[in-house]
Structures are given as C-alpha cells and as structure tokens.
C-alpha cells in the first residue's frame, strides 16, 4: 500500500518518547480517528518507542496515510525504522496488550532493513483527504511547536482520568445490570421450581393413570378371554342338540314315516327352519370365538382365483334365484394367482356374496378381481339399499344390524368375522356405500401373503 507521508520524527532520547506520543495523538486526531482510538494509537506508540529506545538506541518514526485496496478505506500507518538491526530480526512488545490497541503490529522488510509497523483503520464514514488538505495538514504538523514532557504528562493524566470516569460509569451500569440479572434469575428460579413441582404432580397423575389403564386393560383382556371361552363352550354344547332337532324334523317329514297333516307338516318345517337358523348362529359364534382366541391357523398356498371364483359361482347360484337379482362372477385377469389360505379366503368371499344377495332385492351382485401393483383387489358390489356413512363402521361390530334390515335375517356376526379373517391373511376389508345406490366391499390382499 502506497500513501502520503504526513510527519517524520527522530526517536533518540527518553524525552523523544513524550514527543512521539504527543505527535501520534495529534496525527490521529487530524486524520479523523475518534478520541478513544487517538488514545490507543498514542499509547501503543509510546510503548513501542520505549522498547526500541532500550533495545536498539531508537528509531525514525514516520506517519503515513494509506488506502487499503480491498476495502478502499483510509489507514493511518506508523513505521518505526530502528537505528540498529533488531535482535534476531524480530520485535516482541514487552506488554502483551500493545498489539490489542491497534489493528496490526509487526515487523516488515524494508529493503535491507526491517521496520516495526503498526496501523489503525480510519472510520468508514470519514472522508478521504484531498491533496490540498494533506498539504495543509503536513504544514500544520511541521510548524506546530511540540509540547514539553510536563504538558504531555498532564494530557496523559487527563486522558487517564477520563478513562477512569468512563470505567466507573460502566461499572455502575454493570452493577445495575447485575442486580437486574439477579432479580431476573430469582424470578426464573421461582418459575422453574413452580414448573418442576407442577411437572412432578402431572407425572404422578400420569403414572397413576397408566397404572389404572394397565389394570383396565388386564380386566378387558380377561373379559375378552372369558367371552371367547363362553362362546366356544356354549356353541359346542348347543351344536349337538340343535343338530338332533334338525335330524328329528327330517325324520318326521320323511315320507317313510307316518303321514303328517298339512298343519303338522307346516309346523315341522318351521321347527327345522328355526333349528337351521340356530345352527348357523352357533357355527358363527364358534368361528368368531376361534378367531378372537387366535386359534385359527393360516395355511398359505398358491391360490388360483379362477378356480375359486368358479366354485363360488356354482355354490351361490341357488341363492341368486330371487327374481330380478343376477349374480355376476367376472373372470379374474391372468395370471390369477396369489399366496393365501384358500379355505379362509373362500369363506370371506362367500360371506360377502351371501350378505349382498340377501340384502339386494333387484339388480345384480358382482364379484370381480383386479391386480394393483403388488396387491389383489377382490370386490363384491351390489345394487341393494346401501348403508348410511355414520353406520359404515358399526356394521363391523358384533351383533349389530342396520335398522330396517332385521326382517331379512342374520346374526350380525358375519362381517366382524370376515374382517378378522382378512386381517389374518395380511390384508384389509374396506367398504364404500351410498344409501339407495348399493355397497361395495373390497378385500385387499398382498400377492406374497406377507
């Protein structure tokens, strides 16, 4: 960085230290440094001048105003060229705080010699000095008479007093801030203690709630297991007498037995029909109990949907004999295979088709299969009465039937059982329905049965 030389001094005797300090402060003030920076530059100069006077018998001091190319800001630079070479070519200030007073302090080469250089940036809002002002500044500095050591000492004392006043003011402000901080800390600690107590109280309540929930869960599990055992036992005990009633009714209606009157035949038919309904209920209760207890084992094999759909078409054709209702079983797209339990899957689809045929008075019931990436979608749709949105989850509850459909018959156990079987197969059972426009039950199953 090149620049304009402002002033040059000779440092040879102890008296010159005061002169260098005084001139340094004057130059710093002239180029626009703030008061505190003026004191910093003057103090750093006096310390470095004292070190050089003791080590190498003095130096030539040059004040230069330069421009820093990267930032374009003006910089006050002071070069101290030692009278004799520096020991080891290096300079270490006796006071470690000197380097913190300026922006840069170090030794730089200057031809065959070394120069101790320090610099301080001038504030960014300072205006660059025009050449005329630089010339006037050099003339003023050259013509001004230096003060005595006593004058410089008095100025230094005044600066020290001002610094002490500023330190005292800052200390007072710091004490106020400390007292405010302590007060804030007391409030924070009080709030922290209050929050801690509330959190502990909440934790105790949560622990108690969890304990109560665990107890209720254990009771629910025990109740569920008791219900499953009860259903299994009752179903098992009822199956034999109900089967006997059906058998006796068949014997009474047999042509080989004594002939019955028309009224007797009608009553025997009612007994057989009621017994068959009761046997269906017993079987569904037993199946549901087995599903809830986890005693149904899934036997996964390769299932051919075309064969399964053909079997369902043949077994359910008789139920579709109602006039105005058509059973449509679409051919699955090839390759129509998936890994699942064929018996359980057939039971689910048969249940859904049976329900659809039972609740559809006109139109059609359709079974179709669709491949969706790594899943199969098996849907049973009908044109029946439909199910309101608020009841579409309730129909999967045990023993629940949609109001107005009880005349058709049923136990309300088929759909809950079907959903449990689908879950065992690794899939989901979904429903979309709209009152008056029918319903669609969709079974989504993975290809690999996982």
Automatic annotation (TrEMBL):
UniProt xrefs under SUPFAM superfamilies: ATPase domain of HSP90 chaperone/DNA topoisomerase II/histidine kinase (SSF55874), Homodimeric domain of signal transducing histidine kinase (SSF47384)
Domain of life: Bacteria
Coiled coil: 150-212
Histidine kinase domain segment(s): 233-449
Any one GO molecular-function label of the UniProt entry: kinase activity
Enzyme class: transferase
Keywords assigned: Coiled coil, Kinase, Phosphoprotein, Transferase, Two-component regulatory system
The UniProt record lists the keyword Phosphoprotein: yes
SMART domains for the chain: HATPase_c, HisKA
Database matches in PANTHER family: HISTIDINE KINASE (PTHR43711:SF31), TWO-COMPONENT HISTIDINE KINASE (PTHR43711)
Protein name per Swiss-Prot or TrEMBL: histidine kinase
Gene source species: Micromonospora solifontis
Taxonomic lineage of the native organism: Bacteria, Bacillati, Actinomycetota, Actinomycetes, Micromonosporales
């Amino acid at each position: 960085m090149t620049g304009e030389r402002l002033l040059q001094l000779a440092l040879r005797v102890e008296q010159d230290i005061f002169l260098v300090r005084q001139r340094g402060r004057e130059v710093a003030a002239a180029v626009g440094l703030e008061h505190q920076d003026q004191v910093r530059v003057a103090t750093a100069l006096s310390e470095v001048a004292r070190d050089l006077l003791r080590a190498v018998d003095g130096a030539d001091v040059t004040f230069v105003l330069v421009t820093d190319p990267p930032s374009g800001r003006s910089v006050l630079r002071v070069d101290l060229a030692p009278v004799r070479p520096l020991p080891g070519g290096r300079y270490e200030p006796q006071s470690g705080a000197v380097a913190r007073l300026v922006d840069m302090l170090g030794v730089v080469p200057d031809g065959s010699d070394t120069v101790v250089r320090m610099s301080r940036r001038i504030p960014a809002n300072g205006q660059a000095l025009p050449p005329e002002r630089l010339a006037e500044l050099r003339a003023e500095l050259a013509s001004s008479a230096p003060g005595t050591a006593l004058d410089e000492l008095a100025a230094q004392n005044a600066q020290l007093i001002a610094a002490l006043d500023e330190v005292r003011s800052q200390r007072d402000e710091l004490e106020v801030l400390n007292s405010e901080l302590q007060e804030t800390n007391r409030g924070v600690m009080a709030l922290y203690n209050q929050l801690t107590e509330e959190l502990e109280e909440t934790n105790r309540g949560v622990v108690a709630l969890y304990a109560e929930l665990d107890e209720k869960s254990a009771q629910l599990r025990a109740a569920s297991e008791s219900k499953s055992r009860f259903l299994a036992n009752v179903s098992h005990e009822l199956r034999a007498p109900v089967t006997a009633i059906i058998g006796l009714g068949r014997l009474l209606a047999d042509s080989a037995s004594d002939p019955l009157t028309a009224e007797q035949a009608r009553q025997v038919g009612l007994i057989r029909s009621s017994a068959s309904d009761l046997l269906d209920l017993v079987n569904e209760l037993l199946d549901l109990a087995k599903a809830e207890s986890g005693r149904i084992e899934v036997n996964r094999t390769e299932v051919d949907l075309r064969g399964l759909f053909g079997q369902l078409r043949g077994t359910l054709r008789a139920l579709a004999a109602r006039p105005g209702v058509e059973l449509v079983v679409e051919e699955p797209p090839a390759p129509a295979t998936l890994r699942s339990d064929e018996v359980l899957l057939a039971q689910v689809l048969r249940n859904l088709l049976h329900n659809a045929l039972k609740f559809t008075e006109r139109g059609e019931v359709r079974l179709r299969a669709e491949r969706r990436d790594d899943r199969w979608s098996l849907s049973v749709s009908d044109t029946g009465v439909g199910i309101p949105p608020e009841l579409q989850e309730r129909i999967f509850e045990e023993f629940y039937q949609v109001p107005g459909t009880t005349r058709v018959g049923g136990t309300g156990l088929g759909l809950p059982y079907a959903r449990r079987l689908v879950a065992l197969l690794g899939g989901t059972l979904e429903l979309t329905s709209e009152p008056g426009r029918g319903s669609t039950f969709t079974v989504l199953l993975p290809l690999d049965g996982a």
